[in-house]
Amino acid sequence: MREIYLSGYSNFIIPFMIGMIFVLSWCIIGAIRVIMELSAEDRKKFFLSLLNPKIMAKNIKDWFCDCLFHVKLWKRNKLLGYMHSSIAFGWFMIIVIGHIEVFLYTPERIHQVWYPIFFRYFVAVTENTMKGSFFFFLMDFFLLVILSGIILAITKRIRSRLFGMRRTTRPSLTDTIGLYALWSIFPLRLLAEGFTADISGGSFLTKSLNDVLHFFFSDQMNMLPTWWAYSMALCVFMCVLPFSRYMHIPAEILLIPMRNAGIPIRHSRKGISRLQVYSCPSCGVCIDACPMSAVKANTRDTTVYLNRQIKRYNERRIEEISDKCLLCGKCTAVCPVGVQGDRLRIAQRSIRKYNISQDYSNIDTNSLKNQLNNFVTTENDFVSDIHNQKVLYFAGCMTSLTPTIMKSMTSLLKKAGVNYGIMDKDGGICCGRPMLMAGRIDQAMELVAKNTEIIKESGADILLLSCPICYKIFKEKYALEGIEILHHTEYIDRLIKEGRLKVRKSEKSYVYHDPCELGRGCGIYDQPRNVVSSAGELVEAEKNGKESICCGGSLGSLTLSFDKRKALTENALKNLTIASPDEVITACPLCRSTFNRYSQTPVRDIAELIDSNTEIN
Amino acid sequence: MSIFGFRISPSSAINLDKVDRTRFEELCRIEPDAMRCMACGSCSATCPAATFSGMSVRKVLLNLQRGKEEEAFRLMSNCMLCGKCTMVCPRGINTRHIILSICRIYEKEAGR
After folding, report:
1. For the whole model, what pTM was predicted?
2. CATH 3.40.710.10 fits B19-110, yes or no
3. What is the ipTM of this complex?
4. Measured between beta carbons, which residues in chain B are less than 8 angstroms from residue A357?
């Protein structure tokens, strides 16, 4: 080992150092800003989570799996996963090995930040020893890995379909500059190291390149411009990073511990919202996922563009994008970094100023309470030995528009001999979820308070809901201690398991549609499937579970009119009926009526299906 | 005064010349669909808030058109934005968004 330049300095490191200092100070100030913007309670929660060994272990795992290996992208598409992880992990390893080399050979230089980056220029190491050749090989190997990733990245720009993506994001100007800088960094590094390889040593890649280069250039001085170019490319990339999508690289490092600490979005732009917006890598996975993308004009209203417009403070577009969204939550489910597109949009809606506010103080809950003071007890020998709980059935607004669901559900409750009462037979108060989705949180909470009062008074043990929209808000915002909140799919599953409902299995095949609020919203996937398979053959849609496609009828969208929703519904139906089932079964009254409008296949609710396949005990 | 069960009711005529229609025109500009309402009453029939404040999008629009804003606000005060009116509207009018727009454009005047 010998140092080629005793000073350990050359002018070409200046651009690199400028970029490095700029990007580091930007990120440190940004991180402090985000942490300061959190509410005192959230900040405390965040710092405490860092002391919790369990959460910290998860943070470390996520840093590796998400930032470096891009596991979520691997699961989506192998090629896409390889492309991202080769560049991220390869680069990480080059930096780490660079530091190890400095530490081993020139430990006194470790405080010189540029030394690991431009190590080959400053230090010559013999590749004849085991140690030398091992490091040379590793450096060349990871450089090759990155270069293969870059080649894939260039291919992706031309043919994104190979990577399982129908549509990708249109890069902005700074994104493009960053992209070209990133693409040029590693070929330039290879060139620079190739020029130096005969002095500093090298391995299979750099050494062979050096041999080739010797045919053209005999003068050693030719290497200086390539090192300058390498340093300049790094400088351009780092200077453009805070203004481009590559900001996701540092932002994600902070987002992961915040996400694991469970810090919610409380402000439309500040704190965790800001962090999520900057963590968006503009990968465009949400574009293909968005149910609105069935109409090409809507692709510009996906989460990736929302994040971009929030960064630009383009208020008109922010309003347009956030009001149009169906809030199905699919972008959140597929997002590789965990940007919560739906919650971010509700937060944008919540800052709207309304001159007229709703006020529900005049609603007399007593008259509503009177509706349900008598629970219906069915005299049924079959169930006399089973401990009977009081079930309060809240049908909700959407179920009252599809009375057949309510009818089937009450019929099922009777058949199973359940002691039940109906909360809103002659009209009730809305659960508050539609109000919440419109961003009017205070009004929604007023409705929540009114309903809580009625439910607590009723003395019920179980609150039964047949609408996933209600179910979500009841689970999340209502404080009903001692009352079990169940969606009717869960309850029917329980009744079947307890043997209180005897379901006859038919020859027909059914496809089950996961409603957004039930599946992605509350994580209920298995119970409805158990129920459907007890009544017939269960077939699956092309995209199901976490990736099921919204029916298009969602109350989440404020501006999407009926005629514009038709294409979305038809697209969702096409996905559902891929295995040509006899019937489409859903568990949401809104999905049922939306699908029913355009479907060729009969559409029924899960309660209707079970009711028609059950005998009276 | 009521004799034989009949009485003279006060005139319900509205002088539209005296009504300030600027806000309603503003509403129609933002929500052109507001003028497409054919007053079929589907929204009135389904509205869960109708039990409490007599809410109906049809009535709200009519009252606003006639300048009876106070009455419209009273009706709207219990709207829960549940979206049933939008789902049943035979004209496919986005009534939910109309309600939100009314809440944004109009202002309750002080003292009322």
Report:
1. 0.91
2. no
3. 0.89
4. 103
